[in-house]
Amino acid sequence: MAVPPVPPAEFRVLLALVDGPKHGHGIRVDVRERTGGRVDMGPGTLYGAIKRLVHRGWLAEIAPPPGQEGDGRRRFYELTPRGREAARAEVRRLGELLEIAKAKKLRPAGEA
Amino acid sequence: MMRLYRWALRLLPREFRAGFGDALLDEASTCLTEAEGAWPRIRAGARLGTDLLKCYVREWGDVLRGGVSNLGGGVSVMSHDTVIRNLRFAVRTLGKSPTFTCAAVLLIALGVGAVTAVFAVIDQVLLQPLPYPEQDRLAFMTNGSHNGPTLRGLDDISAFDAWTATAGSNANVVRGGGEPAQVRSVDVTPAFFSLFGARPVLGRVLVEGDYADRSVTVVTSAAWETLWGADPGLVGSTITVDSQPVTVVGVLTKDFASPERLVGREAQLFRPMNWDNPELESPGTRRHSVVVRIASGVDLSSAQAQVDRLADDLFQRSLLTFTRQTPSWPLVPLRDATTLSARSGLFLLLASVSLLLLVACANVALLFMTRGVTRTREMSVRRALGAGTRTLVGQLIAESLLVGGLGVLLALGLARVALAGFGRWIGDLPRGGAITLDVRVFLFAVLVAAATALVFGLLPALSGVRGNVSAQLRESGRTSTEGPPLRWARRGLVVGEVGISVVLVALAGLLLRSFNEVTAQHPGVEPENVWTIVLNPVGLENVDEYRSRMDRVLAALEAVPGVRAVTYGNEMPFQFVGGSRCCEFRGVVRTEGSEENILQDRRGLPTHYVTASFFETLGVDLRAGSVWGPVDVATEPPPAIVSERLAIEAFGSESAAVGQELTYGGGESFTTARIVGVAGPTLHYGLDETHAEALYVPIETYSSPLDESTTFAIKLSGSPEGALPSRIRGAIWSVEPNLPVPNVQPLSAWINDSLGVRRLSSALSSAFGAVALFLAAGGLYGTLLYATSQRRRELGIRMALGAESRQVQADVLASGLALGAVGVAIGVPSALLLSRFLRSWLWGVSPSDPLAIAGGSLVLLSVAAAASWLPAYRASRTDPLEVLRAE
Predict the structure, then answer these.
(1) Which of B139, B496, B567, B759 has the CB geometry, 3.0–4.6 Å to B331, for a possible disulfide?
(2) Where would I find the H helices in B755-836?
């Protein structure tokens, strides 16, 4: 059965957490930096996505990692094994789409 | 801003708020602190707002579905079912009360449609980024009126990584065959094309090499199509521009939008800047518009500091002649500079439609409240039978969302109609053009409608599912009555909408009054049967050639049958209204040979260069003296005619002015003239012009730039017969075959155009006022009708006990008027407070004009009385027997 696509905002949050746990603000900063400032998630979008992912069991809230306990208000999240699995499934799905596009010689916008 | 956000968070579902409310607040305050400056902060605030609205929809959606949405189908079949069931149920219940449904949908459509239409305009004009690369780093440099930086000096400012300067002018193009055409030609510097992302669809753009020999041009796609019928052979061919052969080297793409703040929207030709022009290297130059791109990582204020240093340096070295202090050349983000003129008007419009939306919302709330109360019994029965509050609320949400959904569909239709209807006016706005209802606008409408439906539909309806079930069931009677809190809420809503209507009606009154004041002004000229023709004679050798050729045109026009008088000058009345005007000088009045500087410091003595026939053609009467003759023009000092007010202020009376000498000029050059006559006052620059001083000078003394336009005026002896413009063109082309005649229109059309914005603003505000009035009357009427129907039992008993029907009638009427009066009492101070923002729009009327404000209140009170009358009448006809039988 085909895997249902992960909504873009949620996928971005998953990707932000692939290389280690982060707090909410850290996720937003990571997304912004990785996209050169083009994608700046609003607070509602960000935490809405986090809520959904936690609910689905793809994210887990964890204790602040050592050295970052200082700010007690920040809540840290990490990818669960299921979350990582879901992110990989989405990567494969997107990869397949990309292959189709390449096979049809569709060049990305902006390229000559 | 954060307080508002904190408040807005409370509208999120409790569960989500408890989990993430603080985190949202933290993140939002980070977003705001990251934005520097007022405008970016407003934009950040707007982004937070949209983000939160989307969040409402998602999170409440989750609640409505009874859990978090899952990916894929399998797991969430049940919650999906619930939604469908709720919607189906909503369709059924709403279908049973079609009047209620139609009224609520119409109200939402009206309010949301109006706000959406205005938002669509604001979005395109103010919010969308300009279609240029790195547009947020482009800044417009405002020059002084007679000074600016030298263009080469801009290279030394390290805060700029590129700059361009442009100078526009009208040019005459002769094509092989066809009539000569007047086009807008713009001289540009090399960086222009890269700064604005202009690419050629055919040929190439201008390159450095073109600047040595300036005989090349690039044309816009629109000009290529309209002037040359999209002929692909145009590139490489030679056309005649202002009698010079010029080679077309490229055509720009269709999607290239001219930077209108610089070159206007109608720019058609782009030609290389003439670097040999000494003006370019003089800081006294002012005929260029400059746009710079600020280097990445440099902020506007440090770039401004560098510009200020340059200005100070030029001033200290005494290179700036027309200023007594260091001038300031502010850098303004290009987008803001482009749309500045439209901003206050659009915000005024947004404020008005938002008030209108509030009035409509109040009525929606009243409708849902009534419905909620009448369904109390239904709800309590269902609750008694085991329906959970959650289920009932879910159904109510579905009902309000369905009403909102229907409303938004209709609203989008209304917005489309409104945008099409006002298309001409919207086209005149900066960045105007055709407004499309795109995804953003659609989303905006959906969000406003959803918020309206939920806040004003769901909240009032919720009253039905609260309270003690057994108490509600025990209550006797088939109808339910509402408790005091609801009654007060209802009165509050009515009072509120009456208050808002007072504001809208009073503002409409102010704008209408000032429109009437302006149109009541006598223009000082007789526009009947006067037609104007704008010409642009270029490529002239000297002033003598200019005059002899214009005199030939004048003679040709005089020979047209039915023409009584012809004149020409550098401009005609009402051709330039508002800001831009030609030839203003400071005046110095000299009496009896001794210099008396009465007008020395008075800026702006409008000076009109005209032929002697001007006064006869335009019907301007002379109060003293006479028009100059050929002999006067030839003697020194040359003659001049002054306006009445100038004569009285400078010399005491009209007759005293005749024969006196007057010196006028600007900067270092002054001219002396002998006053031969005094003309009556004319409102040359618009009927709302208060500056009635003017100086008329023979066109024979006009030695100013030759490339400026010349306007002819002709007076006909009767109404024009058909095809006058073509006969005029024929007459002109018989002597000047290569001169374009783009604009032939009656003087009354110029006058009419000058009133356009005032007419539109007063018409729009009157429409808003009328709709608000209608809605407030409806709300009041419905509320009273409902209240009396609730009091039927009481009224019946009172009448059975002998109360007179007139007494009952007066009772109800009084309660309606009381609500109206409280509304007016709130509305009048609000109107007084808000009308101050209208000051710049008013003319001849004070913002606290008693007639408009009191008139507005009176209109509202009489409408309140009218709306109360029918319910009062019905109450007085209550039949005691019938009521008691029903018990």
Answers:
(1) B139
(2) 756-790, 792-800, 805-835
Residue of A nearest to B48 (CA): A42
Domain annotation covers residue B713 = yes
b/e burial code for range A34-67 (CB count within 10 A of at least 16 → b): eeeeeebbbbbbbbbbbbbbbebebbbeeeeeee
List all residues 6 or more positions away from B443 whose beta carbon is below 8 Å from its beta carbon. B50
pLDDT digits (tens, 9 = 90+) for B619-675: 998 998 999 988 888 888 889 998 888 888 777 888 888 888 887 766 556 778 889
Question: Which of B20, B79, B447 to mutate to probe the A interface, most A CBs <10 Å?
Answer: B20
Domain span at residue B588 reads: 537-741
Across the interface, do A25 and B30 touch by the CB < 8 Å criterion?
yes
pLDDT band of residue B74 (cuts 50, 70, 90) is very low
B340, part of any domain: no
Residue linked to tokens 């200005």: B311
* B11 lies in some domain: no
Interface residue of A14, A52, A59, A90 to substitute, partner B, most B CBs within 10 Å: A52
pLDDT tens digits, A73-105: 788 999 999 999 999 999 999 999 999 999 998
Q: Report DSSP state, residue B329.
A: -
- Whether residue B51 and residue A47 make contact (CB cut-off 8 A), yes or no, is no
Interface with chain A: mutation pick from B10, B26, B443, highest number of A CBs within 10 Å: B26
Closest residue in B to A1 (Cα) is B72
Flag whether the ipTM exceeds 0.90.
Answer: no
Determine the distance in angstroms separating the CA of B32 from the nearest CA of chain A, rounded to an integer: 11
Per DSSP, what are the bridge partners of residue B584?
Answer: B606
Q: What's the number of domains chain B is made of?
A: 2
Domain final residue, candidates B741, B765, B786: B741
Record: fold of A8-103:
Arc Repressor Mutant, subunit A (1.10.10)
Higher pLDDT, B442 or B600: B442
Determine, for residues B68 and A51 on separate chains, whether the beta-carbon distance falls below 8 Å. Answer: yes
CA atoms B694, B700, B701, B704: torsion sign: positive
Annotated domain spans of chain A: 8-103
Choosing from B273, B306, B329, the residue where a domain stops is: B329
Token pair recorded at residue B16: 């989500």
Residue B134 domain flag? no
Residue A96 CA to residue A100 CA, distance in Å, equals 6
